[in-house]
Amino acid sequence: RNMANFTAVSGFLLMGFSAKPELEVLWASLFLVLYLVALTGNTLIIAATSMDDSLYSPMYFFLKHLSFLDICYISVTVPRSICNSFRHTSSISLWECILQCLAFTLCGSAELAMLTVMSYDRYVAICLPLRYEIIMNVNTCIHGILAVWISGVVSGVMHTSATFSIHFCGANVIHQFFCEVPQLLKLACSDEYVRELGVTGFLSLVAFLCFLSIGFSYTRIFSTVLRIPSAEGRAKAFATCLPHLAVVTLFLSTGVFEFLKPHSDSPTALDFLLTLFYTVLPPTLNPMIYSLRNKAMKAALQKVVKRRKATSFAESL
What we know:
mainly alpha, Rhopdopsin 7-helix transmembrane proteins, 3-stranded mixed beta sheet, 12 helices, 77% helix, globular, disordered N terminus
């Protein structure tokens, strides 16, 4: 039955931002700028946290992995969309669609797990400072990263296998710039998407538990910070927490928005624009959020940029 499904469908048509070629190129150019900003920002954070000895702590270890995840997350959808727009083509093969769906779900789920682990790290740092080095040791950090990637792989495989085990009917037109699961389910024959709903329900429960964990961590963090007697101490504690809280809020709000927004049969330009909120915006803004509020990160980034300039100057001599 599954083999019949794979042989029956050879590919899909991705509907871009506009039917007009000149507008399509304009959107692709905007995508390219945002993609380059995201790549540059996240690469700089990876370089800074890898090269600066003062940033060798669990917080920056997790931040480095978050930046790597962000690069993967935005690279799954945006480059393909840019290429399609500049080539004025909209086709994507079945296997490319399966891989894109798998990678997008994997990265999205892993990012949520990473933010959960990072909120626990901040909770231990602020609420249990004397035990921080004991609790957040090397083994804990490695196990945390393994849990992040395992949860991402499991979520991606479950979601993708459930989605592509159904039969597709109709024109095989996806009203989105990438292979989005809700759009794929609209192409399902009859009620075959019921099994996918079961998987979606399970993954939504896991996501909700992550939300609860993050909420619990930040409730405890803020109650602890507000009890710190000195204003300087409170400011320092908030400085390490607020960037992470901003990133969490950005990612969760855009993710929840995607689940709740109505999926029309013929999406408008506004629907496509809103999709940017959860596909492109978090990876692009995360590096800026982390570097704007964090003095240590700013100093490390300046070192990386200076070192790069010095290397370029030496090569030009």
